[in-house]
Amino acid sequence: MHSSAGGVPPQHGTSGIEYPGYPDPQDPIEYEGPVPRVPRDEVRRRLLTAAARSFAEHGYADSRLEDIANAAGFTKGAVYSNFAGKQELFGAILGDGADSEFTTVMAEIGEADEPADAVGRAARTVARRIVGDAERGQLGLEFAARAARDERTRAILTPLRRAQRAAAAHSIETVVERTGVRPAVRPELAALILHCLCNGLSNECIADPEGIGADLVEEALAAVLTALMDPHAPSAAPADPSAPTDPSEDPDPPSPTDSSDSSDRSDS
Question: Considering the entire predicted model, what is its pTM?
Answer without folding.
Answer: 0.64
